[in-house]
């Protein structure tokens, strides 16, 4: 009876160890992805700052002009929230606007690209 109990405990321990190993691997992968995204944000921040300094000075724009344009763009999706919500998907073949989750155009049958249609 003890052997059966020991075997059952060993199976449960092995299962818990495998689950912990999977969670640790996922944690490492997510940590790596967060670091990659942070690096991309840093790079984009430098690019945008450089572009603003070049364009702003040469065209006589001020920070208030940039802030006004950012607000205008933010409001294109109908909400002033600091985010851009993607609009519906546009078929690359026939140009028709489709639901966001479509992978195949219901009008022409083409595979749908992830080009977004943003309101102007």
Structural features, described:
- 58% of the residues lie in helices and 3% in strands.
- It has 120 residues and is mainly alpha-helical.
- The protein has a domain at 2-61.
- A two-stranded antiparallel sheet has the order 1-2.
- The N and C termini lie far apart (75 Å).
- Mean pLDDT is 85; it is low at 115-120.
The biggest sheet, with number of strands, parallel, antiparallel or mixed sense and barrel status, is: 2 strands, antiparallel
* Number of DSSP E strands: 2
Low-confidence stretches at least 5 residues in length (pLDDT < 50)? 115-120
Please give the count of helices.
Answer: 2
Helix proportion: 55-70%
First-residue to last-residue Cα separation: 75 Å
Mean pLDDT over the full residue set = 85
What is the H/E string?
A: HHEE
Structural class: mainly alpha
Q: Report the portion of residues in β strands.
A: under 5%
């Amino acid at each position: 009876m003890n052997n059966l109990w020991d075997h059952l405990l060993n199976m449960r321990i092995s299962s818990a160890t495998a689950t912990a190993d999977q969670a640790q691997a996922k944690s490492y992968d997510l940590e790596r992805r967060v670091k990659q995204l942070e690096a991309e944000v840093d790079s984009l921040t430098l690019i945008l700052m450089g572009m603003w300094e070049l364009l702003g000075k040469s065209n006589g724009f001020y920070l208030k002009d940039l802030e006004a344009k950012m607000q205008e763009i933010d409001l294109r999706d109908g909400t002033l929230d600091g985010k851009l919500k993607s609009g519906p998907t546009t078929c690359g073949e026939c140009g028709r606007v489709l639901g966001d989750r479509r992978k195949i155009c219901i009008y022409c049958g083409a595979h749908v690209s992830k080009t977004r249609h943003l309101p102007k």
